[in-house]
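Following up on my earlier thread - several people asked me to post the actual chain instead of describing it. Fair enough. Here it is, all 297 residues.
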Amino acid sequence: MNQSFRNQTTLGKPISVQGWGYWSGRDICLTFRPAKADAGVTFVRTDLPGSPRIPAVIQNRVNGPRRTTLVANGAPVEMVEHVLAALAGMQIDNCEVHVDRAEMPGFDGSSFDFVSALLEADRVELNRPRLARKIRGPLRVGDQDSWIQAEPADCFEIEYNLSYDCPAIGSQQFAAVITPEFFASEIAPARTFVLRHEAEQLQKQGLGQRVTYRDLLVFDDQGPIENELRFDNECARHKLLDVVGDFALSGFDILGKFKAYRSGHRLNSRMVFAILQQAVNSDPHAGSDGQKIRIPA
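Reply from S.P.:
Thanks for posting it. Predicted structure:
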């Protein structure tokens, strides 16, 4: 059953940020714009004829390497997880994200610049309840090597456990109850990371040609190259940030306690489908017109 614990929100004014894409290296302008109640989050490709709209819902997600991609109306938007994490973490429910490329600006690989812009635009409360889906019983997706499990709770709590085959990263853990204040200070600044051999392989493929060691965390066995950590467990914090962004594709607030072990974007999306299916099973009016939701492999 859907419940309401707060009113919906939007932005007080439009605000733009400019950067460039990690993958393409192209300059990008992204503008957050207010939206009416119940509109949700929608990406708008202003560079394409007709400015196609791509709603940020799990049904529009497609599998892709190392990032979350959405496709609707014949148009993709790529690497949206850090934008969605900023909006969800700051509880901005209704927003149009106008962008003039397929890829989102990478900045430093975190959500910090997006959160800073959203804070400057101000959050405005709307006279409409924000619906939440509460975990009704245990859920689990994945296998013994990587998994996410959920249990009932009255808040949105995530524990992320990272285990990486790199001495400088190793095993890390971070847990948090997600609130706007905590997200802005303790999660949004956590940057994405890759291993040195991964970065070199991507550049051999013609990707990331504009990226340097100062633009994100690139690790060798001794630690980040030409960079410094913001948190001892920054890698685990960033993976938790990705969970927040991917879970935003549910379109609802989620109340539950989640524990993740080595999960990535694909597994995060499987948990979203599992949450939606549980809601349908407990209340046929909770979503998808009571139809069964298929959890992807």
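The chain has six helices and 18 strands. That should answer part of your original question.
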